[in-house]
């Protein structure tokens, strides 16, 4: 394929982002929802697509945790119908950027990367945390109360501003 055809193909394709956590019922679906709202506000809807999944299959087929859905609703977001799924090696080919929510998720994903190009797509969510952010990764709120879910949504909102700004330059 010629360079002109490659560039033409790339401009008609969406940039694909995948958010990953452990079970795909708390952090990664929240990241997907917050990200989709941020790209819509930035005028990038249709040029960037997002999805989410988990590194473990505990919750495959389930809706996001009701406590996370409640936290998202309190922050003004709506659930789009996502059902949990498990990360697979095929995701490396389908996504341009893979964003694990914590170091454990990152290690699990990198263990499946068979090429340097695959590993290069993996960047932790903390990459877009503000300087001085108290957290070093997106904490798992699963075993806590509502405040932990709200804190995750707020952390993701702050990080998405930086992520979307970076992607605006690419897309």
Plain-language structure description:
The protein is mostly helical and 171 residues long. The model is unreliable at 1-11 (pLDDT under 50). β1, α2 and β2 (48-54) form a beta-alpha-beta unit. It has helices at 3-12, 27-41, 66-74, 91-94, 103-112, 116-120, 146-170; strands at residues 15-21, 48-54, 97-100. The protein has one domain (14-170): Rossmann fold. It has a three-stranded parallel beta sheet with strand order 2-1-3.
List the helices and strands and how they pair.
Elements: H1 3-12, E1 15-21, H2 27-41, E2 48-54, H3 66-74, H4 91-94, E3 97-100, H5 103-112, H6 116-120, H7 146-170
Parallel strand pairs: 1-2, 1-3
Helix pairs in contact: 2-7, 3-7
Query: Which spans have pLDDT < 50 for at least 5 consecutive residues?
Result: 1-11
Mean pLDDT across the residues is 93
Identify the CATH architecture: 3-Layer(aba) Sandwich
Report the order of strands and helices: HEHEHHEHHH
What Rg do the Cα atoms give? 16 Å
Which structural class matches the secondary elements? mainly alpha
User: What's the number of structural domains?
Assistant: 1
DSSP strand tally: 3
- Please report the distance between the alpha carbons of the first and last residues: 21 Å
Q: Based on CA inertia axes, which overall geometry fits? A: globular
Largest sheet: 3 strands, parallel
Helix run count = 7
Superfamily (CATH H level) name: Response regulator
Fraction of residues in β-strands? 5-15%
- CATH fold descriptor: Rossmann fold
So what's the CATH class? Alpha Beta
Question: Which percent bin holds the helix content?
Answer: 40-55%
* Strand order in space, largest sheet: 2-1-3
């Amino acid at each position: 394929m010629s360079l002109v055809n490659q560039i033409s193909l790339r401009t008609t394709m969406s940039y694909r982002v995948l958010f990953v956590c452990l079970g795909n019922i708390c952090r990664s679906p929240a990241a997907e929802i917050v990200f989709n709202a941020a790209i819509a506000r930035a005028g990038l809807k249709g040029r960037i697509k997002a999805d989410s999944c988990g590194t473990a299959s505990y919750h495959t087929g389930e809706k996001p945790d009701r406590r996370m859905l409640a936290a998202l609703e309190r922050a003004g977001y709506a659930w789009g119908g996502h059902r949990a799924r498990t990360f697979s090696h095929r995701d490396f080919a389908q996504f341009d950027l893979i964003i694990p929510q914590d170091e454990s998720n990152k290690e699990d994903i990198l263990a499946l990367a068979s090429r340097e190009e695959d590993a290069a797509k993996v960047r932790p969510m903390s990459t877009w945390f503000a300087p001085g952010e108290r957290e070093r990764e997106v904490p798992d709120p699963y075993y806590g109360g509502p405040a932990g879910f709200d804190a995750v949504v707020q952390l993701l909102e702050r990080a998405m501003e930086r992520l979307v700004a970076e992607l605006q330059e690419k897309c």
